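INPUT
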Amino acid sequence: MNGLSEAQLANLTERLRQRKALLLAEIRSGLDRAQVPHYAELLGGGGDAGDESVAALLRHVADAEIARDIGEVRDITAAEGRVAAGLFGACTDCGDEIGYARLSAYPSAKRCLRCQQHREKTQAPSKYTQR
Ligand SMILES: [Zn+2]
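OUTPUT
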């Protein structure tokens, strides 16, 4: 069981839906931005090496933001799948209630705080632990 009232569950699923719509809009506009061919000109520079570095940096930042947004959309989609399966609000590791306070702060949370902290302590933040 997830320990959530119907109203709490409705509130959280609505927030997931809105957050996902916002992220998808951000991703779309981020992709549009990334396709602007001449960042350096937009920044008012004359196209020397320094301007090119700034342009490259901006492009990198935009990509990182898009990657983060896409990751969050995937988390939200997974959370929506747990709602559909009746598993939302239960920790995917131990099955205990995640709790409304934590879900309210982080609606796509899939672990209870205890399991999340355990995971962060025991797993080094490397590219091999992201999947
Ligand atoms: Zn847990």
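end of record. Residues 37 and 55 are 10 Å apart (CA to CA).
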